[in-house]
Design a protein that fits this description.
The chain is built from 20 helices and no strands. By secondary structure, the protein is an all-alpha fold. The longest helix has about 30 residues. The two termini are about 30 Å apart.
């Protein structure tokens, strides 16, 4: 099916997964109102399963996007394999995030339809951000995603830490949005357009002429996204927000928001703003170095496992920035592969920490993990898989992802970045293995409280996530091929409307000799 973006109807087809998710969110909210007319008590099970069913339906629709074709890549929405692959990552993270949240919400008395609605709306924003080819759509997607996550962060209104985290996230997020919007305005002033397909040629001309507006616009856009992906030194909000938010929300933020932010960064910076590489290249190089070194060192001193994982997520942003700095198809492919694995192992790690933490997330210190591997064997074994994958031990997906990033960096001549990635990964071994040591080589006190048993949905999601991580490490061939195809397909291949006008519908193109 050929799409013509001069028709609004065709945009609905192009946004089919997002439309399904948004409709599901509205349906969940409506059903929840009718089944809880007095607004008291938890939602019924079919409300939460409706949300899961909507995400699964969006996954099917996302695969159908590959059947669509466009005459040229000039629309506001991308129709390439990279967008489809990123949608699978975001939707997969959303399914896992929903399944991991069921037990937590019931335990904390937060099981209401608004939570699932906000999760779905955040996913819509993430998917729009991953597929945007217009700077205005980028900003709208960022705000839709951010506003939903702000509310999710403060969803536990009885917890002061949750309220504090939401306030900090809102203030810093608004600050970052200001940078991003001002950068978009300057890019519009420098190029005369917000459509990324039309901006590229103007960027090449402006970079050659030393256009100050272009330089300032690119710098501010990079800073805005650096806030969103928690790159050092724009990361200061992350530990407090991740620690204060409900644990399933923390995992979803660390996985989904970061995936969407990097998807947009890869598309905008390495493809559409590629002619301006002399502007952003050195900036992102230093951001990658700082983001790999600083959080890994700070994480060594953390006694709270949830906060330690927050610093760990910042460090992983540094690893992903290596793929952005490389900027080639191999760098984008490596970043995509690592994003997919990172999302699964991070969601799994935070979900299991949430089980151990108990009511109010009050038991997330290192001492609370003593003897866990013997007291809850399945939970301990799954947490070991996720921690080893985060550290980059074989045979896990985390090891394959880091190896692929290393190969891309060395191939592009960024040997220094590759060395720093390896050394900082060695540093991270200490704080990951320290948790495993507590679980298996230290004895829990006699009065230690055993973590509550998890529901069937939680166990299914946790085991599935661990299997994905192990399969990606043991049999990475298919995943690497998919990432390589998606990374290469991100680059513009088709004719721009600047050089060849579109043929209107119903008109047959003719040629003369």
């Amino acid at each position: 099916m050929i799409l013509d973006f001069s028709s609004p109807i065709d945009y609905l087809w192009a946004l089919l997964p997002e439309v399904i998710l948004a409709a599901t969110g509205l349906l969940v909210l409506t059903l929840d109102v009718f089944q809880r007319g007095d607004r008291s008590g938890p939602s019924r099970a079919w409300v939460r399963w409706t949300a899961v069913a909507g995400v699964l339906l969006a996954l099917l629709a996302n695969g159908y996007l590959l059947e669509f074709e466009v005459p040229f890549r000039s629309g506001m929405i991308a129709m390439d394999a990279f967008r489809v692959a990123m949608n699978f990552v975001i939707l997969g993270a959303t399914v896992l995030g929903l399944l991991f949240s069921f037990d937590y919400l019931r335990r904390e008395g937060l099981d209401i339809g608004e939570f699932y609605f906000l999760m779905l709306m955040a996913a819509v924003g993430m998917m729009l951000l991953a597929g945007s080819r217009d700077l205005i759509v980028v900003f709208v997607a960022v705000e839709l995603m951010s506003l939903s996550v702000y509310v999710l962060t403060g969803f536990n209104r009885t917890d002061p830490r949750s309220a504090e985290g939401a306030l900090k996230y809102f203030l810093m997020g608004a600050f970052a949005s200001g940078f991003l919007l001002y950068g978009i305005a300057l890019l519009f002033g420098a190029t005369g357009s917000t459509n990324l397909a039309l901006v590229t040629s103007e960027v090449a001309r402006g970079a050659a002429e030393g256009n100050f507006l272009l330089y300032a616009g690119v710098a501010l856009v990079v800073i805005g996204f650096a806030f969103k992906v928690s790159a050092v030194p724009f990361h200061m909000w992350t530990p407090d927000v991740y620690e204060g938010a409900p644990t399933p929300v923390t995992g979803y933020m660390a996985a989904g928001v970061k995936a969407a932010g990097f998807a947009a960064l890869l598309r905008i910076v390495t493809v559409e703003l590629a002619p301006a590489q002399p502007i952003w290249g050195i900036v992102l190089w230093w951001l990658a170095v700082l983001t790999m070194i600083v959080p890994n060192l700070v994480a060594l001193a953390q006694d709270n496992v949830k906060r330690m994982l927050a610093y760990s997520s910042i460090a992983h942003a540094g690893y992903l920035l290596v793929g952005v700095v490389v900027g080639s198809a191999s760098g984008r492919s490596a970043a995509l592969l690592y994003l997919a694995v990172y999302a699964v192992m991070t969601l799994g790690a935070f979900a299991l920490v949430g089980v151990v933490s108990g009511p109010g997330d009050s038991r997330s210190g290192l001492a609370d993990f003593r003897g866990l591997g013997w007291r809850r064997p399945l939970l301990g074994a799954l947490l070991v898989v996720f921690l080893l994958s985060l550290a980059g031990f074989p045979p896990t997906g985390g090891f394959i992802g880091k190896l692929y990033l290393l190969l891309a960096a060395v191939e592009a001549g960024h040997v220094g970045l590759a060395v720093i990635l390896v050394l900082t990964s060695f540093v991270s071994y200490y704080y990951y293995l320290r948790v495993i040591w507590k679980m298996y080589f230290e004895v829990a006190p006699a009065d230690a409280e055993l973590p509550a048993a998890s529901g069937a949905a939680f166990r299914l999601a946790a085991v599935a996530a661990a299997v994905i991580v192990l399969v990606a490490g043991l049999f990475p061939g298919r995943a690497i091929q998919t990432a390589e195809f998606a990374g290469a397909d991100l680059a513009p291949r088709q004719v721009s409307p600047l050089s060849q006008p579109a043929v209107p519908r119903g008109v047959t193109e003719t040629t003369t000799d």
